[in-house]
Amino acid sequence: MVSSANAHAAAGRRPLVVGNWKMNGTRVSCVELLAGLRAAGPFDAEVSVCCPFPYLADVALSLQGSGIGWGAQDCSQHEPGAYTGEVAAVMLAEFGCRHVIVGHSERRLHHAESDTLVADKARLALSHGLTPIVCVGETRAERDAGSTELVVKRQLSAVIHTLGHCVSQIVVAYEPVWAIGTGLTATPQQAQAVHAVLRAQLLAASTRAGEMRLLYGGSVNAGNAQELFAQPDIDGALVGGASLKVADFSAICRAASHVALGSIGKSRT
Ligand code: PGA
User: Fold this and answer.
1) Reported pTM
2) DSSP states of 121-179 as a string?
3) Domains of the chain
4) Lowest CB count within 10 Å: 48, 131, 193, 256, which one?
């Protein structure tokens, strides 16, 4: 019997918690939030916050030397050039970004982002030294129709097709669309089942996929984080609403840190 905490550690997977602030906050509130987060740390899990573009310089200043990383919520699929309103991955690298979220369901939905566009963004992010956090996930209707597996595999396969074995350098976030911002969380078992499917698909593409972090996202909070992180293929979380509150976000980071320290152990079945 392998405890899940041991399963993460044995595979060399340090838990990762990423805050997705979305289009929230002010310059002042962001700096206050980060001061609180710094004070709550350091954390044994890896922690990062993805802020709106205009706050990147402030966030970088606030977090320098803290061990907490930062990043953005999107990037262009193009290198710098005549693309009004876009932000290039190389620019994010200049601001010290560690991560960039690509293919969030809100972008797929409101900006009609396709699987191949998301894959192109991931490729450019990687080529500039950023770690793309590629989001996949099914809608309520797709889950009800029994096509969850089909949908997430299709979304991920576009990225595998573009990146080849380099896919092992990305982070994947499984975010069921029906669980985002709704207070409805996938059960740890539902989430683990999808993570296992994604892990198997990644393993077929790269021998290093066992070392990849697969995050769960969708109404993660201080109350449900620990049980989610106890699943053998859930290596952390992408956190929206709860990342805007210091107490809630730091509790999630602590729950992931317990996994990093191997102090929770649930049996793999
Ligand atoms: P939520 O958002 O935690 O508010 O559900 C997660 C996300 O959209 O990444």
Assistant:
1) 0.94
2) HHHHHHHTT-EEEEEE---HHHHHTT-HHHHHHHHHHHHHHHHGGGGGGSEEEE--GGG
3) 4-260 (3.20.20.70)
4) 193
Asked if residue 180 has its Cβ within 6 Å of ligand 1, the reply is: yes
Query: Atom 7 in ligand 1: which residue has the minimum CA distance?
Result: 240
As beta bridge partners, residue 18 has 48, 238
- Cα radius of gyration (the chain): 17
CA distances from 215 to 31, 54, 87, 256 (A): 26, 26, 25, 11
Is 132's C-beta closer than 6 angstroms to any atom of ligand 1? no
Alpha-carbon distance 202 to 211, whole Å?
10
Residue pLDDT, tens place only, 220-247: 999 999 999 999 999 999 999 999 999 9
